[in-house]
Design goal:
The chain has 83 residues and is mostly helical. The protein contains three helices and no strands.
């Protein structure tokens, strides 16, 4: 998955460069290439990247719940008590 994401990222960068290069000769074609690259990046690359980064992690650890707030308060008071 990591290699696929790197390949897609490099393809996106190359396509953006080609799109900007083509804008000098054919403005409409350059804009189409850039637009399709952005759509690919948003709807294909980004979900794959997010899935890869969040795989195996618990959402509960990153949400501010009452339990997590209590943990943060207890760590804060322990830190102040030790100083």
């Amino acid at each position: 998955m990591k290699h696929l994401l790197r390949f897609f990222f490099v393809c996106i960068l190359i396509a953006l460069g080609v799109g900007h290069y083509l804008r000098g000769d054919d403005f409409k074609l350059g804009n189409k290439v850039i637009g399709l690259t952005v759509v690919f990046g948003i709807f294909i690359f980004m979900p794959l990247f997010l899935y890869h980064r969040w795989k195996g992690k618990k959402l509960k650890d990153y949400v501010l719940s009452q339990e997590n707030l209590d943990k943060m308060k207890s760590k804060s008071t322990e830190k102040h008590d030790n100083q």
